[in-house]
Structures are given as C-alpha cells and as structure tokens.
C-alpha cells in the first residue's frame, strides 16, 4: 500500500521528501558501483605498476603488449555478451534518458564495467567518467525499475545516477549537477535539481570516504593574474576553441573512416596503435589525470610537453574513435592542462618572477572542456570547485567564453556527444511539448471516478448511462471489442430515440507519462486511454482524455 502511495506521489512534477530520499539512494548505489570499479582498476594496476597510472617504469615490451592484450580481451568479452550491447558511455546515456526515460539495458553496463576496467588498467588514453556515468545511470534505473516507479521519476533518478557518477569521478558535486542539467537533461527545473544535487553530494561523500578527498589537480599551485594577462587570455581562448574544433572533427573522421570494419579488428587496431604510442612516448599512456602530474613536474620543458601533448592527442583520438570503452572528459582535462602549461611558458614574460603555470593549466582545462563538450557553465564550476580560488573566476570566464564562441561561431563546432549520437543514429531531440509531458505521470492526471461494466448488452449499457451523472464516464468491456468508452451521441439524440457511441480505448501502464498518452492520441486529436495497474493489467485505475492533455499543454505553462 505504501508503495502505491509512493508511486502516486512521484507521478507529480514536484519536489518531495520521497523523491529526495530516492535521489540519495540512487547516488549511493551509483557510488558503490563506481567504488567497486575504481578498486578493481587499482588492484590490477598494483600488480605491475609502482604508482597508479604511471606506465613509464614498465619494460618496453610490456608497455607495447599490454594495450594489445587488453583490446583482445575487450573484444572477446563483447563478443560473448553480444556486440549489439556495445553502445556505451555518456552519449548512450543521453539517448536513453531522452527517449526511454533513462531505462538502461543491463548487458551494455556489464560491457561498460569490464571493458572500461580493462582499458584503464592497460593504459589506454580514456577517462573513468564515461563508465562511471553509465554505471551510475544503470544503478538508478534498476532502483526505479525494482520499485516500479513512474517513468517521470525514473528519468529524474537516472539523472541522479549520472550526477553521482561525475561527482564520484572528479570529487566535484556542484559541477556534476551543472553537467547533468547542461549536457544530459538540457533543462533546469527545481523539482529535478534538488534530488540531483543530493545524489551528487552522496556520490562525492561516499567516494571520499573510501579514497579520501585528494585530487590530482590539488597538486596545482594557483596564483592570481594581473590585468595585463587578459589580452593574452583572449588569444589563449581562441586557440583552445580552434583545438576543440580540430579534436572533435578528427575524432568523428576516425569514427566514420573505420565504421566499415567490424568491431573485433577495430578494437585490435586500437590496441596496436596504443602499443606503438606506448613504445615511443610512455608518458602519454593512461587517463588524462596522469598528464597533470607530468605538467606539474616539468613545466619548463616545452619540447617534452609538446611531445606528450601530440602523443596524448593521437592516443585519445584513436582509442575513443575505434571504440575502446572509456570516457572523453578525462583525456580532455589532461590535454587542456598540457596546453595551459605550454601557454604559461610564453605568458610568464608578462609577469616575471610570478609562478602562473598552475593558473594557466587550469584555464586550459576549463576552456578546452567548454568548447569540446559545449558545457561552459559546467567547465566554470569545475575549475572553481577544484581550485577553491575566487581569483580564477574572472580569467576563467574570459577564457571559457572566448573558447566557446570561437569554436561555435567561427568553426561551427558542435558538442562531441551530439555528433556521436547523430552518427550512431540514436535519437536525443524531442519536442518541447513531449518534454513537458514527460515530467508528469498518468496517475497524477487520470480520472478515477468512472464505472466499469463487463457487458456488451445495449440495454444494460443504456441503463448504466442513465444511472450515472454526466461527469462520470462509463467504460465497457467485452471479448470482441476490448475496452471502450460508452456515451450518448448528443448530435443524434431525439425525444424518442437516443444513440450510444463507443470510443475505442488504448491501454497504458500506470508507469507511463502524459507524453505516452499524447503519442497515442495525437493523430486523432481526440479520444481517451485507460490506465491499468502495472502489476495487474486487469485492474483499471483510471481514464485519461485528450482534452485533459491539451488543457495541460495550453494552461500549465510551468511545465514548459
């Protein structure tokens, strides 16, 4: 009984204690999965590495063989589970939230866990946030599915799982919330914002409890910049915008070029390329976080940093472009830090004697993130959270704005996630009307005052209609016609005769939203649907008419 009350409460597009508690639960489930994922990586790396993600101490032949062997294992596991379950990462999560209310297939997540762990253990240039987001979304989806929650609540909880995944990966709960709103859901609504915020905090606290609150970026020293740097920062932002465009274009070029190859040779090729880069430039191996340590330790070695930047760029493009399961955000952060460190070498002549390398490395990260992902606000909050320095806000806003506008207007750059979705043919765009209706469960708006009659006898139907008031609908059912709405046809009534007309009714589960009802009725612009209990399709719970949906779209502007 309490579950039924919970489902009815969550069908409403409003903030509630119940939704907030479920958001915390989703964040905790996501955090547990991500902690298990990270511990798996750390355990296996500890068997052959002195320090996590530092592959420079490995013998040359081991560095070369490691990615190739991992690619073969990834391909083998994907073949066992079925290559049809190999759509992974943040773009796939965006598609599932937009078109399937965040319901995540289990086999895809298993591929993501195993494949992502193998990729990160073996030194591929991919990030851990892609698998973290995927697993976080799946954990939240399973919670909503287990409780048979309305789909509008499942959509919100999946967003909670994504936020927890980002927060757990980078220890940035606020940036995680903004990322979900700006990139994944692409909307700001208070009733969605609050549970997602709580989930992000839960994810961050849980991972801090296990791994501590230290971050690779905490090693970076921040110093304020004088106003003389601002013209140079504009040039820096323009360069970052151009690099972001080139990065996205080349990544999509690799994806399109190797699309005709089947998955197995594609993954093997990715392993061979990674092995070759590992042979020549071992510092380019690993997630983007490993590049941060290198930039901090050798800020003045321009040739060395440039070599790593180019190698890291190629390693990332081919790993992600050829289908290695991992995230793109981690490598982009590493590339941005390297670019910022290189730009600081020239900017130091503006402020001699002041260490500005750390500041520029953070600005490079923020600008490249904003232009690559089309997430300027998420990039700004990330750099603010990681530095805890108010002095960086103004220069970060300048670099981010310049990089974003340069990439967008001068190069026509689009978010890499949207480009990947378009190429894969995965839908992610829905109309404003559908998006508004997805926020409301049918249980919130259905008419529960109805009479159900199991008969097709016209006289009995007429008597039932006469006994009811004009506001109470009559639903009749028989084996031949199924469920129908019976009512008097007022246009054909006379003093001597009254005709009964029937309206065929389609059925919708109590988990459905108004968007599902809208899809069933939009062609006729009339009619109604009946709502049945998800756990017992013989139990009719209510009736929903087209006129009610139209009224919501035209009157209740708060949803739009």
From TrEMBL:
Query: Where does it mainly reside?
Result: membrane
Record membrane topology: Multi-pass membrane protein
What sections of the sequence does the record tag as coiled-coil? none
Superkingdom: Bacteria
* Localisation: Membrane
Name any one Pfam family assigned in the record.
Voltage_CLC
Residues that span the membrane, as ranges: 21-44, 64-83, 104-126, 156-180, 192-210, 230-247, 267-296, 302-322, 329-350, 362-380, 392-411
Q: Which UniProt keywords apply?
A: Chloride, Chloride channel, Ion channel, Ion transport, Membrane, Transmembrane, Transmembrane helix, Transport
Q: Which PANTHER family match?
A: CHLORIDE CHANNEL PROTEIN CLC-E
The entry's protein name is: Chloride channel protein
| Biological classification of the source | Bacteria, Pseudomonadati, Pseudomonadota, Gammaproteobacteria, Alteromonadales
